[in-house]
Ornithine cyclodeaminase family protein (Formimonas warabiya), 326 residues
Amino acid sequence: MLILNADEMWQAVSLPKVMDTVEEAYRIFAKGEFFMPDRPVVTHGDDTLLYMPCFTEKCFGTKVLTLFPANPAKGFPYIDGLMLLNDAESGKTVSIMDGGCLTAMRTGAVGGVGMRCFSPASAHTVGVIGAGKQGFYQALYATCARDIRHIYLYDSFPGKDFGPYVASLQAALGGKQPEIHVCGSPEELLANSEIVVTASPATSPVMPNDTALLKGKCFVAIGSYKPTMRELPNAIWELVDHVYTELPFAMEESGDLSQPLEDGIITEDRVRYIGDYLLAHPVPVPPPPGTTTYFKSVGMGLLDLCVADFIYHEALRTGMGQKVRF
Ligand SMILES: NC(=O)c1ccc[n+]([C@@H]2O[C@H](COP(=O)([O-])OP(=O)(O)OC[C@H]3O[C@@H](n4cnc5c(N)ncnc54)[C@H](O)[C@@H]3O)[C@@H](O)[C@H]2O)c1
């Protein structure tokens, strides 16, 4: 069995190839070549345990995540956990890897794929609302999806010290060095960003309900995964014909979709699936500048499985990780 920690996982892969793997996972979803039961969610007080099993024709696996909202204030990550990857023939566990790292790696790639599909090819600016762990990797993958020259960050955490965050981001960006700007408000971020990513656990919209501020941007909403969570305001529905998401369950799971559906602001026919888009467009066709687009991700075990299988094979090929005999 191969055990992989976060450093080894990042060293084994290249970000554009993780995005390609995520695109392929969406196509597998659209073709129905998988088995993924609804993920059991266990809540205990404010804390959540997520079990995300999934099978493809090639392999199967389970990501087990803990989401502890009080953790960031204690200096621990909000999301932690493990990914178990199994051989499809024997059921044997072939790899155990860091589930928090896998989540950030594939969720960043999900955002990057959303940008490759739905942002103009000429986009040079990205804004990230919610400068936490996912926001970090959204910014990083944005620079692989587009020629990003300016990154704008906004976070509502009172008195947040952006210094270490910006320094880590600059280090991770390596040779590419877009300018990084910390914004004092979501309005300032919106005024400067062609692509806007929301990556917060907010329960009410993280930006004003103002079509003039939202118009002409590519929105990638990552954070809301419960009906009580919400990042985008209703004004978005005046600007887009439809939203792209991953799977029908997103309409129940995420308040960004369930609330406007319940309130009669949208109907289900305005919800489309990125897998169908990618099957129809083997090479994504970016929209012209000035188009408002909206991609809402809730994540799914199929993404973790495909990315974990990719990491495992890349790690074997490059000699990463520790082999352990059970
Ligand atoms: N779509 C997916 O597949 C996927 C995957 C992983 C995590 N998530 C979700 O993404 C969200 C962020 O996760 P994380 O691991 O980055 O958490 P995190 O705690 O590391 O970061 C969240 C950041 O958002 C900030 N924030 C909270 N409310 C805000 C607001 N109204 N405006 C601006 N900033 C705000 C917090 O201060 C914090 O810095 C969570 O809700 C998580 O469940 C989604």
Q: What stands out?
A: The chain has two domains: 2-102+302-323, 108-299. Residues 8 and 320 are 6 Å apart (CA to CA).
